[in-house]
Design a protein that fits this description.
Number of helices: 7
Strand order of the largest sheet: 3-4-5-6-8-9-10-11-12-18-19-20-21-22-23-24
Shape: globular
Distance between the termini: 41 Å
Largest sheet: 16 strands, antiparallel, barrel
Length: 464
């Protein structure tokens, strides 16, 4: 009955949307190449099409009708290209509202927020060097959210280069990625509940990260090998001792009529985490339930959380495989994505915690894993879409009530609808229903942070 209500609401919204006006978008990169946003994006931003992949593989250096300033060793656009991106959002969860007050209300009561206001700058620095950076204006604190500087050169039919990067929350995959599966969050077609449709996002690969990536790409695929650290690129945050390998094939029309791609991701090693170090406290040894490291004088020391080494190191261990297909069915554009990811635990409780499987209450640290499939159908091409997704996951978390339950299930079904008021202004409605033992009151006293087992989100996105 509930599913029928969702379908009816979706149909009603789509019917009303038919009367909205059309317009065109020209954000940062569109200004540089002199094309509308749908030249690079399939159905809508941020999903990349084949030209969008080529633009990214060039290191953001392709330029169109925009004038250039050129000289000996200089080739830059005459205008610095930038864009402002905003998201305004209403969210409603179905958790218990008992005891909330006007100052403690949350999404269980229904909450409207400005969730993002960012300034993006990007484009060509030189003939073979580009950049893209995000300055976060909201939420606080304002500051640099991410930046990367691809240095890409033609080597035969391939493009080869190095990409130094830093990000406060997109993960090492942000260094270079062109697939739309959630391998990196910025290209996923639904940004409101990414964990419902992407296995990589479910296991939490969108972390702070910095380092440098060696990239080789062509029309047939790409390889990204990076040395990285789970911190932003600031002094004293440790060296890039973790490794990341991404291998993907993008053979185009391997499946007739569809743009097909598939790949795998491997996160390995360990690194010092600034967040883990921040979690240590100076206390007394008797009060420390984790790892105690004495500090000379006064009997003081640092107490690391259980599973985190005294120097704040965390394992960075995960594996993912993914695939996508984009093409037309009966004249309507269709995006299909599938992904599987696993973040292993430490059998019997390891000496070092895996940052992608960080439930410290799980005594046996079983593997956190997810299998996701999702689809987006353009019911009005370049204007309106329907979205659907399924997640089947093991959370890696133990029950807070029944200690025998050590790896509770965490499943989801997502339905959504989007409508482009303009190519750069989009309204989105998403409903997610969660199930599995993680949401069973008989096994989990917290019921996932008290937010219940469903989420409704209305989002208004704009870029200009």
């Amino acid at each position: 009955m509930q599913f029928k209500k969702i379908l009816f609401a979706t149909y009603a919204l789509m019917s009303a949307a038919l009367w909205a006006p059309q317009a065109h978008a020209i954000p940062a990169f569109a200004r540089q190449v002199g094309m509308a946003c749908n030249a690079c994006h399939y159905q809508h931003f941020p999903v990349l099409n084949s030209f969008g992949r080529a633009f990214k593989q060039s290191g953001y250096t392709i330029i169109g009708v925009q004038e250039k300033i050129e000289g000996d060793g200089l080739s830059i656009p005459s205008t610095l290209n930038l864009a402002v991106v905003t998201n305004m959002q209403y969210q409603k969860t179905n958790g218990d509202t008992t005891g909330t007050t006007p100052t403690t209300k949350n999404t269980n009561n229904g909450a409207i927020d400005l969730t993002q206001a960012s300034l993006f700058l990007g484009g060509r620095i030189a003939e073979n060097i580009g950049f893209v950076g995000e300055l976060g204006m909201y939420p606080a604190p304002a500051g640099l959210a991410s930046i990367k500087i691809p240095m890409i050169y033609d080597v035969g039919s391939a493009k080869v280069g190095v990409v130094p990067f830093t990000t406060n929350g997109l993960g090492v995959a942000h260094s270079f990625e062109v697939m739309n599966t959630g391998a990196v969050a910025v290209h996923l077609f639904n940004q409101q509940d990414m964990t419902a449709i992407s296995a990589q996002q479910y296991i939490g690969t969108a972390t702070a990260a910095s380092g440098a990536a060696l990239v080789v790409s062509s029309d047939m695929g790409f390889i990204n090998f990076a040395k990285w650290s789970p911190n932003e690129m600031t002094s004293g945050n440790g060296s890039p001792t973790s490794t990341y390998l991404r291998i993907a094939a993008t053979p185009g029309n391997l499946i007739p009529g569809f743009d097909f791609a598939a790949g795998a991701q491997f996160w390995r090693g360990s690194s010092t985490s600034a967040a883990a170090l921040a979690g240590t406290t100076i206390t007394t040894q008797a009060a420390c339930s984790g790892t105690w490291t004495p500090i000379s004088g006064g009997g003081l020391g640092t107490c690391a959380n259980a599973g985190i080494s005294p120097d704040g190191r965390l394992e960075t261990e995960a594996t993912a495989i993914d695939a996508q297909m984009m093409g037309e069915v009966s004249g309507l554009p269709l995006t299909l994505i599938a992904s599987y990811a696993v973040a292993p635990g430490e059998p019997g409780g390891g000496a070092m915690q895996n940052m992608f499987n960080n439930d410290l209450t799980n005594a046996v640290n079983e593997s956190k894993r997810s299998f996701n499939i999702a689809a987006e159908l353009g019911v009005i091409p370049n204007k309106a879409t329907l979205q659907f997704g399924i997640r089947r996951a093991s959370s890696g978390q133990s029950s807070t009530v029944n200690l025998a339950k050590t790896n509770m299930t965490d499943n989801a079904i997502l339905v959504g609808v989007t409508y482009a008021l303009a190519l750069n202004v989009r309204a989105e409605l998403t409903y997610s229903k969660y199930s599995g033992s993680l949401y069973n009151a008989g096994e989990n006293a917290m019921i996932v942070g008290g937010k219940g087992n469903n989420l409704t989100t209305f989002n208004l996105w704009a870029a200009f």
